[in-house]
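Kindly go through the entry underneath: sequence plus C-alpha cells. Please state briefly how this chain folds according to its C-alpha cells.
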Amino acid sequence: MPHLPDHLLAGYRNFMNGRYPTESGRYRELAREGQAPETMIVACCDSRSAPEAIFDAGPGELFVLRNVGNLVPPYEPDGEFHSTSAALEFAVQSLKVKNIVVMGHGRCGGIRAALDTNAAPLSPGDFIGKWMSLIAPAAETVSASTFMTATERQTALERISIRYSLANLRTFPCVSILEGKGRLSLHGAWFDISTGELWVMNKETGDFERPVLE
C-alpha cells in the first residue's frame, strides 16, 4: 500500500515541477521570516469552496480557518477545547491580521443539516448536529417559512449564518477592541459554487451584493 493516495503524489509532483519553482523564493522567505498574512478567512471545509483558489492567493497571503458551515462560536473561556477560537486568537493576537472575512457558500451540507430537523445523526456523538445548533434559532425561523422554496431557504440560512458568525466574532474582546480602534475590519462574503459568483455583504444594510470588478 502506498503511504499516500496516488492522486496526491501526482499533484505534489505537478507542484514541484510547476508552481514551486516559480515561487521558491517566496517559500524560502516565509520559512526564514515567518508568515504575516493581513487577512484571515473563516470558510467552510467543503472541498468545492477553497478560499486560496477563489481569491487566487499565493503562499503566505491568507490565514485560512475551515470548519463545517464556516461558523464562529461565541466567546467562551471555559477551559474546554475550542479549535476555532484558538485559530482566531492566534490570527488576531499573534499574526495581527487586519481583516477577517467570513465566507459562506451555496449548497452547504452543514446548513442543509441545520434545516433538516428530521435527519438522523451521522454518529452517536452527533458532532455536526451539536456544531450546527449554533444557528438553531435562525434555522427554526427559516424552516418555518412556507413562502420560500427549499433552495431559497437554504440560501437564506447560508447568508444569515454569516451574519451570526460576524456577531459572534464581536463577542471576543480582542476582536471588538481592535475593531473599535479601526485596526481590524470584519467582512462577510458568499460564494456560489455553480456560477463562481462572489457576493459581498454590505456592512451598512447586511445585504449581499455583487462587487464591481474592474
In short: The beta strands are 39-44, 62-67, 99-105, 185-191, 198-201, 208-209.
